[in-house]
Design goal:
The chain is about 40% helix and about 15% strand. It has about 575 residues and is an alpha/beta fold. About 0% of the residues have low confidence.
């Protein structure tokens, strides 16, 4: 066994023999000196080797881009870790106030938050506060400090909270009366004890919305009450660059009248994106005298949710030459005379929009949606009627007729090439006799009709009678849908019989079309023979009075618990994904 005092055996491949003997002959003090020299040499060599690493060779501006991409929002921990990799990285990070602005987190300890705020130097701040993310208890005092001492530096301010947790923030008295750099302001779900609305309800203080923000381009107020008069007299006229406005109210008391809303909009000439969710109602005198037209020459996107009455008045008062997207969700209520006025408003608002080739009309579970779009794109026109109940027993309902006629009157839809319709018979039987004739007579370029879960058999009957009367020489007007080339339908025996009869009738007048069955799983047919069904169909089609569906076929029973659920879900999913 080798003794501790024997000469150390070291491979000659690493150290030469002379060096080994020098080490062996050295005493303890000399060995310590050697170790210090070797350690310094190793550190020096390591540092020199690191200079050849890719991360160390990159220019500082490239590293800044990498850091900014890797750094999560409001996360100082990663930034601190990156700054401890090497002196080069640390020097870059400490001299990059934009990185510290991105990492600024109100939930950090107050001392560290103040240090990060100091490292942002004088760059505009992007402040985000959500009471749900205040897991440390520091966020409220930190934000209060920002509001008092650094509000003038804010370029983006996002405040979100529930209950009385943040009334301290909203009611904070700032030391300035303007925020010259503020471009984006979002306030959501704030409940504050400071009275600001005329009826004394809690809301955003008038002083908060009165602060001068000449660079403001985006304003988002959701779930909080405020004084519309202050918006009209103080905020709107002093925010000429405002291009995006989103207001959503949860209480009818905080909604504006149409007159109040229009008075605000006419002060915002650069508005491009407008979203109003339950934020305006029809005032007592709104419908008495027509409003002066409000020109929004740059508005490209309009979305709102209201009653049909308020929506009709609102749309009729706007002039939108640049509009490219309209989404409206209206509560139909029990009034039966306002659908026509609302559809006239849709026509006026969209008259300058580019024509759209696709149209989808669907009803189910008291919701009626019609939307139009370009091929393979999100809808550019979507109208949703909520709480649309159908009368039972069936009675004449002018709302249904006004809607179908109103769709046909929208100039935007005159170039529609493809139509998908899913309307139950309980809806169709409320229509006036000439409704489908009017609809098909205005949308003359339709080449493809698709049917959903509810096949509109009265529409098919209208097409049959048009061809039948033309063949018999009884029709004096132009032919309906002369460009129709294809019909896509659910694959059911009874419906196929009805479509075959229609094909034969149109073939006799020189306008046949192809049939594209849509495969669906259905139970085995147990009804009468096909020949009997055909006779029943012909009798029903040619009958002057239509009291119900043809025969007793189960395929035409008015049942809303069908695939219409999937159709509505698909349309409503489009609404959600598009809004996101």
């Amino acid at each position: 066994m080798e003794s501790l005092y024997d000469t150390p055996t070291i491979s000659s491949a690493t150290l030469n023999e002379e060096f080994v003997w020098i080490v062996a002959a050295a005493d303890a003090e000399e060995l310590d000196q050697m170790l210090q020299v070797f350690h310094s040499a190793i550190v020096c060599i390591s540092q020199w080797c690191n200079t050849f690493a890719l991360a160390a060779c990159l220019p500082g501006d490239i590293l800044l881009l990498v850091f900014e991409h890797a750094l999560p929002d409001r996360d100082t921990r990663m930034l601190r870790s990156l700054s401890q990799v090497c002196c080069w990285w640390r020097s870059i990070i400490l001299q990059a106030p934009l990185l510290w602005r991105k990492a600024l987190n109100l939930a950090d300890r107050s001392a560290w938050f103040s240090e990060v705020l100091r490292r942002t130097c004088a760059v505009p701040l992007e402040v985000f506060f959500d009471v749900a993310e205040d897991y440390t208890g520091y966020a409220i005092p930190n934000l209060t400090a920002v509001m008092i001492d650094n509000l003038w530096r804010c370029a983006s301010l996002h405040i979100e909270g529930y209950g009385d947790d943040i009334e301290e923030i909203v009611s904070s008295r700032t030391r300035i009366d303007q925020v010259p750099l503020l471009r984006r302001l979002l306030i959501r779900n704030i409940s504050c004890s400071v009275p600001s609305t005329p009826d004394g309800e809690a809301g955003i203080p008038d002083s908060f919305l009165s602060v001068l923000a000449p660079q403001l381009t985006s304003l988002h107020l959701e779930g909080c009450t405020f004084n519309w008069d202050i918006v009209h007299t103080r905020l709107a006229p002093r925010s000429p660059l405002l291009s995006s406005l989103f207001i959503r109210s949860f209480h009818i008391q905080s909604a504006a009248t149409v007159a109040q809303l229009l008075s605000v909009l006419e002060l915002l000439p650069n508005l491009k994106d407008l979203s109003l969710q339950n934020s305006f109602v029809s005032g007592e005198t709104d419908g008495d005298v027509p409003f002066r037209k409000v020109l929004l020459s740059q508005l490209t996107s309009l979305a709102f949710e209201s009653s049909t009455v308020a929506g009709a008045i609102f749309l009729a008062a706007l002039e939108l030459p640049s509009l490219a997207k309209l989404e409206a969700a209206v509560d139909i209520g029990q009034v039966s005379t306002n659908v026509r006025q609302f559809m006239e408003g849709v026509h006026l608002a969209t008259c300058k929009m580019a024509h759209l080739p696709l149209l989808h009309i669907c009803y189910g579970h008291r919701i009626l949606i019609f939307q139009s779009s370009h091929y393979h794109r999100f809808p550019r026109l979507r109208v949703t009627f909520m709480n649309w109940s159908l009368h039972s027993p069936p009675i004449s309902d002018i709302r249904c007729t006004d809607l179908i006629r109103g769709i046909a009157d929208v100039a935007l839809l005159r170039s529609t090439r493809e139509v998908k319709v899913s309307l139950p018979f309980s809806f169709e039987r409320c229509l006036a006799l000439d409704t489908w004739t009017y609809f098909l007579g205005h949308l003359k370029l339709i080449s493809l009709i698709s049917f959903g879960a509810h096949v509109p058999i009265l529409l098919l009957r209208t097409l049959f009678l048009d061809a039948y009367h033309r063949h018999e020489g009884l029709q004096g007007q132009s032919q309906l849908l002369p460009s129709l080339e294809q019909v896509a339908m659910p694959s059911t025996p009874e419906l196929e019989v009805l479509i075959d009869i229609l094909v034969e009738a149109r073939s006799r007048v020189g306008t046949p079309f192809a049939i594209s069955p849509i495969s669906r799983m259905h139970p085995r047919r147990t009804g009468p023979p096909i020949e009997v069904v055909r006779e029943l169909m012909l009798e029903w089609l040619t009958n002057l009075v239509v009291d119900g569906i043809p025969g007793d076929s189960v395929w035409f029973v008015d049942d809303e618990i069908t695939d219409s659920d999937d159709e509505l879900d698909e349309l409503l999913d489009d609404v959600d994904s598009d809004s996101e």
